[in-house]
Amino acid sequence: MTSLGKPVTQRQLRVGEMIKQALGMLFIRDEAKLPLSTKEITVTEVRMSPDLKTAKIFVMPLGGREADDVVAKLKEFSFVIRKVLSKKIIMKYLPKLLFVKDESFDYAEKIENLIKQTNK
Fold this sequence. Notes:
Strand content: 15-25%
Largest sheet: 3 strands, mixed
Number of helices: 4
Number of strands: 5
Mean pLDDT: 86
Distance between the termini: 34 Å
Strand order of the largest sheet: 3-4-5
Order of helices and strands: EEHEEHHEH
Helix content: 40-55%
C-alpha cells in the first residue's frame, strides 16, 4: 500500500492500528455521547498521513444501513470524538479525524456476483 508513491511506514501502520482499537472501544462503550448509536459502527481501517497529523477512518454501520447518514454525523461531531480520544491516546499531536464510508464491502459483493455469473 503506497501513499503518493511512498511506501507506508511501520510507524503509520502502528499508529493507525492504535487509533482503530481506541475508536472501536470508544464506540462500543458509547463514551463520546453522540446523538446516534455508536455501538453499531465498525471501524474497518485507519490510514495515517506520513506526518501522522491526519487519520482517514473507514467506517461502516452494522448491516450497511444509513451509512451516509452515520458518516455525516461522525464528520459533524468529529471534534467531540477527537476530544474523548485525546484522553485515551497519548501522542504529541492527535491527528485530525476524517470519517469515510467503507466501500470495500460493496466492491467485494460486486466481485463475488461477477464470479457467480461467470460460473453459470
